[in-house]
Amino acid sequence: MIAAVIFNKTAQCHFLCDLLFFKGLGYFVLESSVLSELNACESENKRRRKKEKDFLRIGGNDRLVKLPLSCDALQRVPFFDSLILVVNYSFFAFFVFLISDAFCLLFPESKAVNTSAIWVVGALILQIHIITKISLQKIAASELLTERNTLLCASALFFLLAITFCAFSDQIVDLNFDRGYSQFVVSLDHFLLANGFGHLFSFDFHSPLMLMLSLSLLYALVASAMFFPLLQFSSLYFHSVECSVSFRFLLHFVFFAPFLIVLLFLRPISDHLIENDFLSFAQLRMLRFVSVLFWVILRIATAKVILQTFLNRPKMQMTDYGKESKENSQKKVAFFASYVCVTSLQYILPVLATLSTALLLKCFDRFANGETEHQTIQSVILNYKLQEPIWNFSLISLLSTQFFVGLIGIFGERSFG
């Protein structure tokens, strides 16, 4: 309740979004539109106008003016409120998780469920909802038939890949689907027998096929919602050349990091690390979590470079705009500034969803340490041996999707860009 009250007071705060995404960035508009606006408010901000004209004009190009970007300038832009809400809520959920995890470390004998899982689940649902809403808007118009067909084909492909991966997952990665599902069925059978419902149900058949089909379908829906955002990220990453060599290396590392993290889940690698006493199983799980957290931090740290690359596109396409009327050129240039909140969401939401999945995996790990001998329906459903393969599958799938779809986008840019 205390956390809910605190969040309610800070839900609409712009500081975090401004700091992480917009502070220090600039967007382009046509000079004529800026001059008309400046003339209209000349009496109010004469000093600031002079400062902006000196600092913001693009050298060698009289038609474009660069203006500073801030949350105040984006109040009426589409999805601005969604960006503020999802960023504030996600980071607040992470803060609650840290407090709850610290409590579990200080009081390891406590049998209480880690309540931060509720906040993290809420964050994950919000993240998936917003990215799905953006993707649906991209294909809702009747003239977007090609995009709609592409997304349907991608969804079918994601489903086939997921069900194939689930079928052979125990041989490829450290998931243990069969063991987890069997343990869940046994626990559920014991619970029903203890409560007098054993004669109503029979669990002689222990195939996890329905679980795999459900997870694959869910993954296909989420991955298809992330498909176009990930392609856009790969395009912006490919064109983000206006930065230092060291920062360029950091961008390369951030792009390939999901693949490196997935390697930690491969069964040959995990077995080698554990059997040769390089790491214990608990240390390996912690290494995976820390790797995801470190990657998320780097993705957020490089967000401004990617967003500025998007905002610089009018400068790169000005030759094409010069062939059109001034009104059409003005609309096309202004589009990039008006679309920056959507671009920010498409950049950050797959990352935050991956972080939420990793946090939930760690929450259920804590719950496993707090299990009691007395069985309840909650302990049966939240059994760690069942939840671990589910959330490991989700984490591996999200990381793999971000890397391989990004790789497809890079090949597309090199071939057709």
TrEMBL record:
Chief localization: membrane
Pfam families recorded: Tmemb_161AB
Alphabetical list of InterPro entries matching this protein: Transmembrane_161A/B
Family according to the record: Belongs to the TMEM161 family.
Acetylation among keywords: no
UniProt-annotated location(s): Membrane
Gene Ontology cellular-component annotations: membrane
Membrane-spanning intervals of the chain: 83-106, 118-136, 148-168, 209-233, 245-266, 286-307, 333-361, 390-411
Organism: Heterodera schachtii
Topology within the bilayer: Multi-pass membrane protein
Annotated keywords: Glycoprotein, Membrane, Transmembrane, Transmembrane helix
Protein name: Uncharacterized protein
Keyword DNA damage: no
